[in-house]
Design goal:
Radius of gyration: 21 Å
CATH architecture of the largest domain: 3-Layer(aba) Sandwich
Number of domains: 2
Distance between the termini: 26 Å
Largest sheet: 7 strands, parallel
Helix content: 25-40%
Mean pLDDT: 96
Structural class: alpha/beta
CATH class of the largest domain: Alpha Beta
């Protein structure tokens, strides 16, 4: 009986799903520390939610056929080392697209409409919005620039189009023309997105090519009334450069679900900037999406257990796998 390790912190519904589906088929182990993980180095399948998996931790898991992220971020997993050991590294491609896209739209709305300020005003009995009304905006009629037109980016496009926005995008791999027409989106070079978008929403993985893509130079190209939204990875944005740009009103503001060095200390200056909204990396986390995530991971485990090939969209280390 092969062993599955759930490493990290998991929602109760996810644990229950695995317990029910592993019964009589797999040994299931919950591990929250590296010591507990490595005590189960014979595990065939390791599910990752939270802790990083550098090369030395991968090496310790000598029996692993698969390291599967609960989510789509894999920047903290040494995919090369896993591949050299003959293990797949997979992500739950597309499974969290809807909740993350909805959260991106929520951040846009909450920022432009000063949701938190209105909530405070309601407590104080300040009616009809007070002074923030003169700095409140609609998405309607705006140009939304999406960086990364994968599953999440496409859903964001559909949502903001429902509000009446125009959508342009940049992706290292341009979509086929027929797909662009179907989605009603227009491809632009990256710098043109920087220069012309009213809202920029980030939906790409963290790679060497995307790390600090949004730096001082990129921010200098953007419009003074531009809002940047990040539900991807914090390290895509240079936080110090962003904070300076917002404070100096070179851009309008930022709405972030993820940030460099998270979680930030409570006295970090980002929390004192009223034009920056920060949520604690919760975009993909909803109670009704937990089963989708668990089912995707368990389905990939079952595929390998049957000796079948995994769908390419889930595998992120194919180039490093031994033949």
């Amino acid at each position: 009986m092969n062993k599955i390790v759930l490493f990290g912190t998991y929602p109760d519904k996810g644990i229950t799903y695995f317990k029910e589906h592993c019964a009589g088929k797999y040994e299931l182990v919950l591990a929250s520390t590296y010591e507990e993980l490595e005590a189960n180095s014979d595990a065939a399948y390791v599910v990752l939610r939270g802790p990083a998996m550098p090369a030395e931790r991968i090496k310790a898991m000598k029996g692993a056929k698969l390291f599967h992220r609960w989510g789509v971020g894999f920047n903290d997993v040494d995919i090369k080392q896993a591949g050299e050991q003959g293990a797949y590294v997979c992500i739950t491609a597309g499974m969290n697209a809807q909740p993350v896209a909805e959260h991106a739209a929520l951040l846009m709305l909450a920022s432009f409409r000063h949701l938190t300020a209105h909530m405070e005003n309601a407590k104080k009995g300040i009616m009809y919005g007070g002074p923030v009304i003169s700095d409140s905006w609609m998405i309607n009629g705006r140009r939304v620039g999406i960086l990364g037109m994968g599953a999440i980016g496409r859903k964001v496009a559909k949502i903001v189009q429902g509000f009446g926005a125009e959508v342009v995008y940049y992706d290292a791999f341009r979509l086929p023309e027929e797909t662009e027409k179907e989605l009603s989106v227009t491809f632009l070079p990256l710098e043109e997105v920087f220069k012309t978008a009213d809202i920029i929403s980030l939906h790409m993985p963290l790679l060497d090519s995307t790390r600090r893509m949004i730096d001082a130079r990129a921010l200098s190209m953007m419009k003074p009334d531009m809002l940047i939204v990040n539900t991807a990875r914090g390290e895509i944005i240079d936080t110090d450069a962003l904070l300076a740009a917002v404070r100096e009103r070179r851009i309008w503001g930022a709405a972030l679900d993820t940030v460099e060095g998270e979680p930030l200390p409570p006295d970090h200056p980002i929390f004192s900037e009223p034009h920056i909204l920060l949520t604690p990396h919760v975009g993909g986390n909803t109670e009704d999406n937990i089963v989708n995530m668990a089912a995707c991971i368990f389905g990939n485990i079952e595929t390998l257990e049957r000796g079948e090939q995994l769908a390419p969209r889930f595998i992120v280390n194919r180039q490093h796998l031994k033949n």
